[in-house]
Amino acid sequence: MASGSASSPRPAPDENEFPFGCSPTVCQDPSEPRALCCTACLSENLRNGEDRVCPKCRGDDSQSVSPGSLMSQEKDHPEVAADGVGCPFADVGCSFKGSAKFMQEHEVTSQATHLNLLLEFVKQWKAQLGSGLGSGPMALERNLSDLQLQAAVEVAGDLEVDCYRAPCSESQEELALQHFMKEKLLADLEEKLRVFENIVAVLNKEVEASQLALAASIHQSQLDRELILSLEQRVVDLHQTLAQKDETLGKLEQSLRLMEEASFDGTFLWKITNVTRRCHESACGRTISLFSPAFYTAKYGYKLCLRLYLNGDGTGKRTHLSLFIVIMKGEYDALLPWPFRNKVQTNGNAGEGAGAGEPES
């Protein structure tokens, strides 16, 4: 590692000796004396006042000697390499040593190198595990992808870090990233699914409550409909009862009027109004005859009424006025002598102020 003597140049860096700021490339065509891109070689060159980088390193990474790179840091801060604090990734091959003041800067600028070191370490661990246990390659690749992803997150803090990826591990890292994104997408979908399930559960409860309210409304509507039908039938019955009562009342009024107009001494005075109109109706055939109210020969005597033909009847039609006595069925007919043999006398009066007509028997 870089902790060896700095008095003589080293032949070549280790496979894990890749300081930050330089490409992971073994020096080719080194200048005189040999200038390597490991920490020790760069430190020695800086101590000697030299700023030499091989053409291969300079061609692979134009930023290897830019401000902020390892060479610039060695020039500006010579106490960094002399400090004895090692990098947290020293267990996997990082050779950087320096004070805690520069350790954070080293961790930020050397993310690509640290990822490559972790990848090489995982590769060795995978090879050893595969040769020792002979486990399934698919399971090992999944474990490797998870470990790579976890290491990348811990070192870089974000998956979208512009870091160096070795060509041999590019497909595995892409698989790991895809696996992580799928798991994250699946977790998001599961969370949304839980939210939607809760929403659906609430909506189902509301639908059930609405269905219960609707069923109650339908039941109440049915009861109201039955009540309306019952009330309508009752109204019909009341109309029928009212019609019957009106009919009965009419009969009673007519009976009362007849009783008021009735005579119980055998004498009856019949006043006929609107004679001209009635005569016209009789001539037209609409009202052929008129019936008078009933009257009695005595309180328990015969029941009689008069029937008048204003346009005449029989041989006197259209030339005379015909009047007939009608014997009606009475309540006391069983006590009376039959046939009817009483003498009847009539008298007609043409109008107000006229003299009395001649009586006829």
From TrEMBL:
<dbReference type="GO" id="GO:0009898">
    <property type="term" value="C:cytoplasmic side of plasma membrane"/>
</dbReference>
<keyword id="KW-0963">Cytoplasm</keyword>
<keyword id="KW-0862">Zinc</keyword>
<feature type="region of interest" description="Disordered">
    <location>
        <begin position="57"/>
        <end position="77"/>
    </location>
</feature>
<dbReference type="GO" id="GO:0005164">
    <property type="term" value="F:tumor necrosis factor receptor binding"/>
</dbReference>
<dbReference type="InterPro" id="IPR049342">
    <property type="entry name" value="TRAF1-6_MATH_dom"/>
</dbReference>
<keyword id="KW-0479">Metal-binding</keyword>
<keyword id="KW-0675">Receptor</keyword>
<feature type="compositionally biased region" description="Polar residues">
    <location>
        <begin position="62"/>
        <end position="72"/>
    </location>
</feature>
<protein>
    <recommendedName>
        <fullName>TNF receptor-associated factor</fullName>
    </recommendedName>
</protein>
<dbReference type="GO" id="GO:0005737">
    <property type="term" value="C:cytoplasm"/>
</dbReference>
<dbReference type="Pfam" id="PF21355">
    <property type="entry name" value="TRAF-mep_MATH"/>
</dbReference>
<dbReference type="GO" id="GO:0043122">
    <property type="term" value="P:regulation of canonical NF-kappaB signal transduction"/>
</dbReference>
<dbReference type="InterPro" id="IPR002083">
    <property type="entry name" value="MATH/TRAF_dom"/>
</dbReference>
<dbReference type="GO" id="GO:0007165">
    <property type="term" value="P:signal transduction"/>
</dbReference>
<feature type="domain" description="MATH">
    <location>
        <begin position="265"/>
        <end position="361"/>
    </location>
</feature>
<comment type="similarity">
    <text>Belongs to the TNF receptor-associated factor family.</text>
</comment>
<dbReference type="InterPro" id="IPR008974">
    <property type="entry name" value="TRAF-like"/>
</dbReference>
<dbReference type="InterPro" id="IPR032070">
    <property type="entry name" value="TRAF_BIRC3-bd"/>
</dbReference>
<dbReference type="InterPro" id="IPR012227">
    <property type="entry name" value="TNF_rcpt-assoc_TRAF_met"/>
</dbReference>
<dbReference type="GO" id="GO:0042981">
    <property type="term" value="P:regulation of apoptotic process"/>
</dbReference>
<dbReference type="GO" id="GO:0008270">
    <property type="term" value="F:zinc ion binding"/>
</dbReference>
<dbReference type="Pfam" id="PF16673">
    <property type="entry name" value="TRAF_BIRC3_bd"/>
</dbReference>
